[in-house]
Sequence to fold (213 residues):
Amino acid sequence: MQSDQISRVEERVYRHWYEDGLGELTGGGLFLLFAFYFGGHAWLEKGNAMGRLFLNVGLIVLLICGVLVTRWLLGVMKAHFTYPRTGYVELISPKRVSEQRALTAFIGVVGAVLLFLSGQVAGSYRWSPPVVGLLFGIVYLLIAVKAGGLRRFYFLSAFSVCLGFGLWFSQYLVTFNLALFYIVLGFASIISGGVTLARFLREHPMPAELEDE
Fold:
């Protein structure tokens, strides 16, 4: 009984955390940064080797800095839009926030290195779009389940998988396909977050005492 109550509380906390759409907005912005990165790779595909090496090193910096800046920006936006309307909700303790940031950056770097090495061994990266689409599909699905079945995350999960496998059949360069994947998924996430935020602001007006300040 107690474990069921704890699970329901955690579900409500996760649902409350994602009800404003800010996570999708900041996540979509991060996807667009990745789109610029892979677009640069596509542009330099037949260019100088030094430029591609610079971009490969830049991926690690982009992963670490992008995650940290996105989390910081999310906190700032929640402090401005969400907490004055619904109160402050701490999803996890500050210590676990730091641990998860480090773990997220580490997983991102290791994943990027593994993708690079796998492509070098296989001699092709054409499988990258469906694999990336499947990975993000799983992430969105887990969020939907943890947040008690928010429907928009089920849609983003299915959309990510379909987009990744659809680009698998594209005849363009793999780096171009990855850039296109992140652009489309980024805008889908931003649109989803923007619509959700607009509804959230409409349903949760600013308290009168705060508007007068």
About this structure: The radius of gyration is 19 Å. The CA atoms of residues 31 and 180 lie 10 Å apart.
